[in-house]
Specification:
Keywords: ATP-binding, Nucleotide-binding, Transport. GO terms for molecular function: ATP binding; ATP hydrolysis activity. Residues 9-248 form the ABC transporter domain. The protein is an alpha/beta fold. The chain has helices at residues 47-54, 77-83, 100-107, 113-118, 124-136, 152-164, 182-195, 208-214, 232-236, 239-246; strands spanning 9-18, 21-31, 36-40, 62-67, 70-71, 85-88, 170-174, 200-204, 217-222, 225-230. It folds into two domains: 1-84 and 168-184 and 199-248, Rossmann fold, CATH 3.40.50; 92-167, no CATH class. It has ten helices and ten strands. It has a six-stranded mixed beta sheet, sandwiched between helices. A four-stranded antiparallel beta sheet has the order 2-1-4-5, with helices on one face. Strand 1 and strand 2 (21-31) form a beta hairpin. The longest helix has 14 residues, at 182-195. The structure holds adenosine-5'-triphosphate. Adenosine-5'-triphosphate binds next to helix 1.
Amino acid sequence: MDTNTNFTLAIEDLTVSFDGFKAVDALNFYLDKNELHVVIGPNGAGKTTVLDLICGKTKSTEGSIKFLNKELTKMAEHEIVRAGVGRKFQTPSIYENLSVLENLEISYPYGRGVYGSLTFKRNKTVLDKIHEIAKQIMLDDALDTEAGLLSHGQKQWLEIGMLLIQDPQLLMLDEPVAGMSVKEREQTAELLNKISEGRSVLVIEHDMEFVERIADKVTVLHQGKILATGDMETVQNDPKVIEVYLGH
Ligand SMILES: Nc1ncnc2c1ncn2[C@@H]1O[C@H](COP(=O)(O)OP(=O)(O)OP(=O)(O)O)[C@@H](O)[C@H]1O
């Protein structure tokens, strides 16, 4: 695709083969600003691989991934992060022996890495931002708490906060509510709805009740291809989707 688009993310003809097996097969996928899009589908459908391709962890065999009209397929992982793509993996990668505040501070986009960040003086701009994010992720009362002492759900929120502080235009989350309590799921739904304002959010999720709560759009992936895409109701009532995924 050589022309510019208004989409935050425009994926065209994206294919990746692992020893001849196409885990993602000629995928076309578009994401708007302010859109929270959930990808669902059976195990092995290619969901994680799509996120791996976007963040540069896996290189495509063919096709194009344009993020804000920048071609990502030729960029290194750290360049993609700097361009404004944040990704949260299933297991949180927080620093357990640092406080919530320090975890957020380390992620602030000045200097990179633990030593780079901590040698900077805390200034008001940074602290204001940390407080703003902490409030958003419901950890403003826990700023001095050691991250290792947080609940499972709070750890997930902290990691989301560590991405938000970098203000990504695209945020990708892999099964964000796995292992969370009912209450934490509700709070996470609210959080995700809020953070999709002004940016694009791409979520992989299996919990259909949660998907229904958050999704502006849903795409069902099956054998590396799109089986259906649209709003939740359309997708849920699609006979092909019921057959390969929801009916089980
Ligand atoms: N690096 C790799 N090398 C070889 N095969 C791979 C690689 N990564 C993924 N695959 C294969 O590609 C297919 C899609 O995997 P993927 O993890 O993307 O599925 P998924 O939809 O995320 O599944 P799940 O819901 O189980 O996480 C699987 O058959 C998987 O074994």
